[in-house]
């Protein structure tokens, strides 16, 4: 009995200790639940602040430069120069009314250098701004001093709040000429915040709430304002018809994290905005209190129930063992997943490396294919002069004894063919090395006739009619005769290949302007597809399977014309043929230059 009597107080002490531990654990769990819910609320506030910040910034940026752009109009300067001219003021009023209607910016008005409104978009309304003096407004004084101004205020004329953005209108001879102001209505943002259930507020640089989804917060300071600040706000009349001095602040205790609203404590988050503004978001803390109380009650109840069980140790050991096993399983799964992720990362890196290698191989293959096509075209063009030269030399051999004069002509023709091949190879060499070949004054008509003569055999073989149209005068350009001839031949050959054999027509015309000469090649073919037209001048791009013609291609033609100081203009419509214009600057003659000097 004595031993049992001594054991009973120790059991009671153990139960009291266990009860205290359970109670303490319940309080700690409640505090943890409080912190977790508060963290979630703050995260939601951060997201809401981000969205609201972007919405507010977007709404302001829509009209940020409207005063500056509007102030550059001649009607605005005319109104500032002649404020007593009724017609000038009427033109400015209607211009501002039209701009405000089209942009949806609200009110747009013009102040003279003294701050008096001389023109406004609401000139024909009962609450017109015309004639009112707003020289006391900060947006006027800031714009006169720095060139720009912005402030949120309640209108002294209409009593409607808005965001005023101003820009100074300068005159080169007079300096400050006036100030252009736009008034933006930001109240739709308040309505949107209220409809989504958010508690959003925007404060100015004096911590006065001027925009809020909660009407009770509007035009109230966060903390009590100093007397100098109240005097400055009264002088500027920013918050007309409000009494900031007697209004209770939203943070009476100076707390930056809690605010009293709608009879419930709320947590507060803020982010800075432009011109000293601050965007605030608040959320009720009752979910955190409810979570903390519920968690603490559940933990306490579980502890009390556990204390009432006789086999608490056994269940506790089983629970610990189960948790240990769960932890081991989770760790094993985490290690497995980490290894899988590592393998996936390595596989993706290998795939990316293979993809880059494949892309490089494809680019190189395309380049090599383009070089092959160019080489085939060069061989084709060189083979014709070589064959002609061989025939000419053979005829010259037979005619050495019979007709020396004809033999000399044939040799001269062979020499011309050799020079032609030299010019072509020299041009290709200069182009590949990006070297500028010498330029000289040449006649565009002579080059055109030469190119037509060279392209005539191919046109006759294809049954295509070649036409030439040139003005009476002969324009002179500064270019290379052989290269310009090759450009025109390439364009003529492309046109001949594009038209229908037997019914095709290709025209080379020359038009002279005041400062430019246009050599235009047109055809009546099917035209160039719209999806192909932007790429026809790209290097290595072709719709042909094999190389033909001079091997220049439109990309080389484009480069050659640029070397001449000109440009290549390509126009086409499906079913209407193609027009390719070589536009070169006219070479001024010596007498024209002397006359210009």
UniProtKB/TrEMBL annotation:
Broad EC category: transferase
Pfam family, one: HATPase_c
Enzyme Commission (EC) number: 2.7.13.3
Domain Histidine kinase: 377-588
Membrane spanning stretches: 290-310
PANTHER family recorded: C4-DICARBOXYLATE TRANSPORT SENSOR PROTEIN DCTB (PTHR43065:SF46), SENSOR HISTIDINE KINASE (PTHR43065)
Entry protein name: histidine kinase
Organism, as annotated: Alloyangia mangrovi
Taxonomic classification: Bacteria, Pseudomonadati, Pseudomonadota, Alphaproteobacteria, Rhodobacterales
């Amino acid at each position: 009995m004595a031993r049992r009597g001594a054991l009973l107080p120790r059991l009671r002490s153990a139960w009291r200790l266990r009860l205290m531990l359970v109670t303490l654990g319940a309080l700690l769990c409640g505090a943890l639940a409080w912190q977790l819910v508060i963290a979630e609320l703050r995260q939601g506030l951060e997201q809401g602040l981000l969205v609201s910040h972007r919405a507010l910034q977007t709404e302001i940026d829509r009209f940020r430069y409207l005063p500056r752009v509007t102030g550059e109009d001649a009607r605005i300067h005319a109104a500032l120069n002649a404020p007593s001219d009724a017609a000038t003021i009427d033109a400015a009023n209607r211009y501002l009314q039209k701009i405000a209607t089209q942009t949806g910016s609200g009110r747009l008005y013009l102040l003279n250098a003294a701050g008096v409104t001389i023109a406004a978009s609401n000139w024909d309304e009962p609450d017109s701004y015309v004639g009112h003096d707003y020289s006391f407004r900060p947006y006027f004084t800031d714009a006169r001093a720095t060139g720009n101004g912005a402030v949120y205020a309640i209108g002294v004329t209409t009593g409607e709040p808005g965001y005023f953005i101003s820009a100074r209108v300068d005159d080169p001879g007079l300096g400050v000429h006036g100030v252009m102001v736009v008034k933006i209505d930001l109240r739709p943002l308040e309505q949107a915040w209220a409809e989504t259930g958010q508690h959003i507020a925007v404060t100015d640089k004096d911590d006065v709430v001027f925009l809020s989804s909660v009407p009770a917060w509007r035009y109230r300071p966060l903390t009590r304002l100093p007397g100098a600040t109240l005097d400055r706000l009264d002088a500027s009349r920013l918050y007309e018809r409000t009494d900031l001095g007697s209004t209770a602040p939203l943070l009476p205790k100076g707390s930056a994290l809690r605010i009293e609203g709608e009879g419930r404590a709320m947590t507060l988050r803020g982010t800075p905005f432009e011109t000293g503004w601050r965007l605030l978001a608040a959320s009720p803390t009752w979910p955190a209190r409810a979570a903390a109380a519920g968690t603490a009650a559940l933990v306490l109840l579980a502890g009390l129930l556990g204390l009432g069980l006789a086999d608490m140790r056994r269940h506790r050991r089983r629970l610990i063992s189960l948790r240990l096993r769960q932890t081991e399983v989770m760790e094993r799964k985490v290690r497995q997943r980490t290894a899988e992720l590592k393998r996936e990362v390595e596989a993706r890196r290998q795939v990316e490396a293979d993809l880059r290698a494949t892309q490089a191989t494809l680019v190189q293959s395309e380049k090599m294919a383009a070089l092959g096509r160019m080489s085939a075209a060069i061989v084709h063009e060189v083979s014709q002069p070589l064959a002609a030269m061989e025939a000419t030399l053979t005829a010259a051999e037979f005619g050495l004894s019979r007709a020396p004069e004809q033999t000399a002509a044939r040799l001269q023709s062979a020499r011309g063919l050799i020079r032609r091949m030299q010019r072509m190879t020299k041009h290709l060499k200069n182009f590949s090395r990006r070297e500028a070949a010498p330029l000289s004054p040449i006649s565009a008509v002579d080059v055109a006739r030469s190119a037509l003569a060279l392209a005539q055999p191919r046109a006759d073989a294809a049954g295509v009619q070649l036409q030439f149209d040139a003005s009476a005068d002969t324009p002179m350009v500064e270019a290379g005769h052989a290269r310009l001839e090759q450009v025109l031949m390439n364009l003529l050959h492309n046109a001949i290949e594009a038209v229908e054999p037997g019914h095709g027509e290709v025209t080379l015309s020359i038009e002279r302007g005041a400062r430019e000469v246009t050599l235009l090649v047109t055809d009546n073919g099917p035209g160039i597809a719209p999806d192909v037209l932007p790429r026809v001048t790209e290097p290595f791009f072709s719709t042909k399977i094999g190389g033909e013609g001079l091997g220049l291609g439109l990309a080389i033609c484009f480069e050659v014309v640029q070397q001449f100081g000109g440009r290549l203009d390509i126009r086409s419509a499906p079913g209407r043929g193609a027009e390719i214009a070589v536009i070169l600057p006219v070479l001024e003659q010596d007498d024209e230059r002397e006359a210009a000097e």
